[in-house]
Amino acid sequence: MAHNVARLRARLSRFDVTLRPHLKTGKSVDVARAVMASPAGPATVSTLKEAARFAEAGVRDIIYAVGITPDKLGRVLDLRSGGVDLAVVLDTVEQAEAVAAASREAGVRIPALIEIDCDGHRSGILPTDVEKLTAIGQILATDAELRGVLTHAGGSYAARGVAALVACAEEERRAVVDAATILRTADLACPVVSVGSTPTAHYAADLTGVTEVRAGVFVFFDLVMAGIGVCEVDDIALSVMATVIGFQREKGWILTDAGWMAMSRDRGTAKQAVDQGYGVVCDLAGRPYLNLIVADANQEHGIIAVRPGSGGVLPDLAIGDRVRILPNHACSTGA
Q: Are 307 and 223 in contact (CB under 8 A)?
């Protein structure tokens, strides 16, 4: 883990940006303190429960990076009243109006970032939508606080090869910089220009105009990241320890007590060149067995088998033996 953190810090040191790590991956105060620039942050979270937990541990600079809804604004105000600079994210006029109304009622300005759609992956405003960007910006600037713009290059998870990853990073950068320019042209302040994904953080060639980089899975890495080419399998710093509980020898199965409740149901590698099932099986020292994967999973049972077509053989394991399983997606397994 320490190597992974140092690697990204070293890479970003060549740019004039701040690393704002996403704490949803580790969900741990100790891990958070290892990745943040200081015990006070900055940090990113995916739930208000995470925000509250890390606030209790002294984190004071937090972005709640999931679209805000009116029913959550009371909790946001509570956290802010406790000394946490908690900012929210939105991409609609309706959300902006709700944030503005809550700010007026409370007599404090809630900071918000406008989410930008850089690659069609999920939510956000297109960086060319001048009308919507300025409408939201004006609402926030009047009664709340326009903190800036933010995007996530989720499409980078489908990229293959260095050139494609570099292109994703530039597409991500260009989108938020263009959006920030639109806001500033309309005389709206845009101090924060935030990008974020582990693949683009490791392959960005230019971050001109960007103020901060958000990334989360880099701290542990996982099989999806290895499949993209962002890391090696040996870099993966998170595993699930499982115990052998049975066999179906005629089927070539070893059964363990780590099913999808332990591993998660994320099958992110299924669309990659090498399908790793529900995870790669290793010995207790973390050394992968050759072509051995969790081929299938039930709620509490994992089915270990040799990768189809590999010609591999099952290891000689006994009831009670333990193995480590590397996950497809560290964030969901860690949760």
A: no
User: Looking at the whole model, is its pTM more than 0.70?
Assistant: yes
| Residue-number span of the structural domain to which 245 is assigned | 233-334
Tokens of 235: 């870099």
| H helix or E strand, kind and range, residue 257 | none
| In-domain check, residue 226 | no
Is 227 domain-assigned?
no
Helix boundaries (H) for 147-229: 162-185, 198-203, 223-228
Domain boundary among 187, 219, 251: 219
B/e letters for 105-130, b = 16+ CB within 10 Å, e = fewer, are eeeebbbbbbbbbbbebebbbbbebe
pLDDT in tens, 79-95: 999 999 999 999 999 99
Q: Is residue 99 part of a domain?
A: yes
Indicate the length of the chain as a whole number: 335
Is the CB of residue 40 less than 8 Å from the CB of residue 127? no
CA 56, CA 49: separation in Å to the nearest integer?
11
Q: Is 228 inside any structural domain?
A: no
